[in-house]
């Protein structure tokens, strides 16, 4: 079998003395979409932070594209192609939409062909995916709606030419009509850009509609994994709902 794009073996992490993740094994195959689900506080966000390098591994090993990246910091992992859309989106409020997107280009610095790509600016496919961003490119990030900010945060992560996109609760606080637009855009990100997606999502209908497989977290561990095509969300919901 082909090596997964992302692979975690026995990964743990702590906040100071307080251990939050234990013995995480996770394979994310290239081209797949994996949903990470679980109740509040079980460690989903911490797992994403560990993957992007914002949290140090205290045990285990992480490989990305077959290379051991366990010891690399966040900038190096971003440069390797790991893009992150944080919970709450973290748009720069005083920068315009265009300037926010340009900050995503920094992940290209130091990559082969990176200087040319930075000079070329924001790739057209980002505006093809999110036409709204082109219309509001001079507007300040702070005045955008939740849905516009989410599109901007995804566009910014894609500007760094990520091959893996991590999203932390992209549907949170977004109206249903916009959730559908985001799902459509993420489908195109997979199909047209070949980007692999790992998504933390509380909204199970969205997770099931979008992802191929799921992992359930409980108290800092992955306790169950399966296919969203072979099981229904209802069969798993008791592990996730409070
Ligand atoms: N910066 C931090 N310092 C110390 N403890 C933290 C920190 N961030 C999170 N925690 C703790 O780590 C545990 C896991 O939190 P985490 O945010 O990863 O969970 P989550 O599953 O993403 O929850 P939610 O759905 O509420 O975002 C919780 O007990 C939380 O209180």
UniProtKB/TrEMBL annotation:
GO terms for MF: ATP binding; ATP hydrolysis activity; branched-chain amino acid transmembrane transporter activity
A Pfam family assignment: ABC_tran
Top-level taxonomic group: Bacteria
Matches recorded under SMART domains: AAA
Keywords assigned: Amino-acid transport, ATP-binding, Nucleotide-binding, Transport
Keyword Acetylation assigned: no
ABC transporter domain location: 6-242
GO biological process, one term: L-amino acid transport
Entries under InterPro entries matching the protein: AAA+_ATPase (IPR003593), ABC_transporter-like_ATP-bd (IPR003439), ABC_transptr_urea_ATP-bd_UrtE (IPR017780), BCAA_Transport_ATP-bd_LivF (IPR052156), P-loop_NTPase (IPR027417)
NCBIfam families found in the cross-reference section: urea_trans_UrtE
Family: Belongs to the ABC transporter superfamily.
Protein name per Swiss-Prot or TrEMBL: Urea transport system ATP-binding protein
Organism ancestry: Bacteria, Pseudomonadati, Pseudomonadota, Alphaproteobacteria, Rhodospirillales
């Amino acid at each position: 079998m082909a090596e997964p794009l992302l692979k975690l073996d026995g990964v743990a992490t702590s906040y100071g003395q307080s251990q939050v993740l234990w013995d995480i094994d996770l394979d994310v195959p290239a081209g797949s979409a994996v949903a990470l689900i679980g109740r509040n506080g079980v460690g989903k966000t911490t797992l994403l932070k560990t993957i992007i390098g914002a949290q140090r591994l205290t045990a285990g090993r992480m490989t990305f594209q077959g290379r051991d990246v366990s010891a690399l910091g966040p900038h190096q992992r971003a440069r390797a192609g790991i893009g992150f859309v944080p919970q709450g989106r973290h748009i720069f409020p005083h920068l315009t939409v265009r300037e926010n997107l340009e900050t995503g280009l920094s992940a290209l610095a130091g990559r082969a062909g990176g200087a040319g790509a930075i000079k070329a600016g924001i790739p057209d496919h980002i505006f093809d995916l999110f036409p709204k961003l082109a219309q509001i490119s001079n507007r300040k990030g702070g005045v955008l709606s939740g849905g516009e900010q989410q599109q901007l945060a995804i566009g910014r992560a894609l500007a760094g030419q990520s091959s893996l996109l991590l999203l932390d609760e992209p549907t949170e606080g977004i109206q249903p009509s916009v959730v559908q637009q985001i799902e459509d855009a993420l489908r195109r990100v997979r199909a047209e850009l070949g980007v692999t997606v790992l998504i933390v999502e509380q909204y199970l209908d969205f997770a099931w509609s979008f992802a191929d497989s799921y992992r359930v977290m409980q108290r800092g561990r992955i306790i169950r994994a399966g296919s969203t095509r072979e099981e229904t969300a209802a069969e798993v919901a008791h592990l996730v709902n409070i």
